[in-house]
Amino acid sequence: MSGAARVCLTVAMAGSFAIWFGARAQSLAPAKDAGSTKAGPMVTGFAPLNYFQNQCANCHGDYGAAYGSEFGKNITEKQMNDFVRDMAAGPGQMPLNDADLAVETGFHRALQTSQPFGVAVAWEGGVLSGEALPGSTVSLEIDGKTEAVPLAGNAWKIAVPSGADWSKIQLRVQKDKKETVVPLATRAF
């Protein structure tokens, strides 16, 4: 192998490692304890829509648009889980750990049922951030008040007042006249 070829291979491998490490670092963030309502919300530490766009969209379209209306019909939760796991490890070339697989499978199940999908990914410094399908309307219900959350592409974030009681906070995602409600004290998506 020539010196130039070795340099190209080394640069390509370094770039692949950086992409892999960045995606894995997100999935290694700890989720909050579901029993604590004051400390913070449940979060995944994993961004399933970004993962899909980076690893799957080339074949399956942006956010699964190429799946079609028959995607996932008449398959069990285990079969959906196995499908996502196998595609991530095979063509996606980025296997998922069990926790991340559950989130990615949740996204795929939402595609299959045509339900809006939203997920709380991180909670840091009083700011909650996450993802929702582009074109969704995202809001946070805090103590009965609804706060609109701007969506930039598939990402959203909002500052949450300190001392908020997470047992009374819900993420609401609306799209195509359907709504998904996520009680953030007990679930992240």
What is the level 1 CATH name?
Answer: Mainly Beta
- Tell me what portion of residues adopts beta-strand conformation: 15-25%
Summarize the helix and strand pattern as letters: HHHHHEEEEEEEE
Given the helix and strand composition, which structural class is it? alpha+beta
Instruction: Quote the distance from N terminus to C terminus.
Output: 48 Å
What overall geometry do the principal axes of the alpha carbons give?
globular
How would you describe this structure in keywords?
189 residues, alpha+beta, Immunoglobulin-like, four-stranded antiparallel beta sheet, 5 helices, 23% strand, disordered N terminus
Overall description:
- The longest helix is centred in the N-terminal third of the chain and has 25 residues, at 3-27.
- This protein starts with a helix and ends in a 6-residue tail after the last strand.
- The chain has one domain (3-183): Immunoglobulin-like (Sandwich).
- Helices cover 35% and strands 23% of the residues.
- The chain is globular.
- The chain has five helices and eight strands; from the N terminus they run αααααββββββββ.
- The protein has 189 residues and is α+β, with helices and mostly antiparallel strands.
- A hairpin with a 2-residue loop joins β3 (137-142) and β4 (145-149).
Summarize the structure.
With 189 residues, the chain is α+β, with helices and mostly antiparallel strands. The chain contains five helices and eight strands, in the order αααααββββββββ. It has helices spanning 3-27, 48-55, 57-60, 77-89, 98-113, and strands at 118-124, 127-132, 137-142, 145-149, 151-152, 155-159, 169-175, 178-183.
